[in-house]
Design brief:
With about 260 residues, the chain is mostly helical. The chain has two domains: about 5-195, no CATH class; about 195-259, no CATH class. About 55% of the residues lie in helices and about 0% in strands. The protein has 14 helices and no strands. The protein has helices at about 15-30, 30-35, 45, 75-85, 95-100, 105-110, 120-140, 150-155, 155-165, 175-180, 195-215, 225, 235-240, 245-259. The longest helix has 21 residues, at about 120-140. It is globular.
């Protein structure tokens, strides 16, 4: 990833930053246990045609969220976050951000590059972008709900969907699940990573419905409970195309998601 593509990652860490990163990883252990799930496109590939690998309409996650070229989508994303909060009956934004802050080490470990962004910024990036994605998944191809009223989708909806499926634009599934676990839940009570078949089924159905709707190929569909075991939306689509999202693969991923 070229340095001009984002303002919050820096592949050249100072010695002090490197020491802090290693200490935190050893202290929490999560960096070591959590596999990288959101990769970056090698500069040797992206440099030839960067416009093919960087989002043009909407940024999701810390790699591209703060790119000045995408600031114009911030207000529509906030509107989508509010819709998701209301439609999914989620707690207040501060509450959701606090839940994701508790997962900071795991979130950072999920991204290939070290994120040069503070705790507060990261938790709000993940909160707003995750809720935006949940709003899209909830409304996409729903019989009585549409997405075309959003300015993000007005000009070129196909390009906006392409942005959502870009390698560097992925939101880890465990983050979406963490938020969904708070659906219709008391604001004074935090649900952890316990079993919840109704929530898993709802999220899995949203994910598979979206993949089925955007894919030009016939997919080997899976159960919603299997879909949530994939690392993120792009990983799910990839495995649905290959037909490798089944009970055995899901069981292998299940333990990682619950840990």
């Amino acid at each position: 990833m070229s340095s001009s593509s984002t303002s919050i990652i820096n592949p050249s860490l100072s010695e002090e930053q490197w020491v802090k990163h290693i200490r935190d990883a050893l202290h929490h252990g999560i960096d070591i246990e959590t596999p990288v799930s959101v990769h970056c496109v090698p500069e040797s590939i992206s440099s030839a045609k960067p416009e093919a690998y960087f989002p043009h309409h909407v940024a999701l996650g810390p790699y591209h969220h703060l790119r000045p070229q995408l600031y114009q989508t911030e207000h529509p994303k906030l509107a989508a976050a509010r819709r998701a909060q209301a439609a999914l009956k989620l707690p207040a934004f501060d509450r959701t951000a606090g839940l994701l802050q508790a997962e900071e080490a795991k979130i950072r470990a999920s991204y290939q590059l070290h994120l040069e962004v503070g705790t507060d910024t990261l938790k709000w990036i993940m909160t707003i972008d995750s809720l935006f994605l949940l709003d899209l998944l909830y409304r996409y191809k729903s019989p009585h709900i549409g997405i075309k009223e959003d300015s993000i989708w007005d000009d070129d909806p196909d390009s906006a969907v392409k942005d959502v499926m870009m390698v560097e634009n992925q939101i880890p599934t465990f983050v979406l699940r963490k938020i969904m676990l708070q659906t219709e839940n008391s604001m004074n009570e935090v649900r952890e990573n316990e079993e919840d078949e109704s929530i898993d089924g709802k999220l899995g159905e949203m994910l598979t419905r979206f993949c089925e709707g955007i894919s030009p190929l016939r997919l080997e569909m899976c159960l919603p409970s299997e879909a949530i075991q994939r690392k993120h939306l792009l990983d799910l689509l990839y495995n649905l195309i290959l037909g490798t999202t089944g009970p055995e693969a899901a069981q292998t991923k299940k333990n990682e998601l619950r840990s």
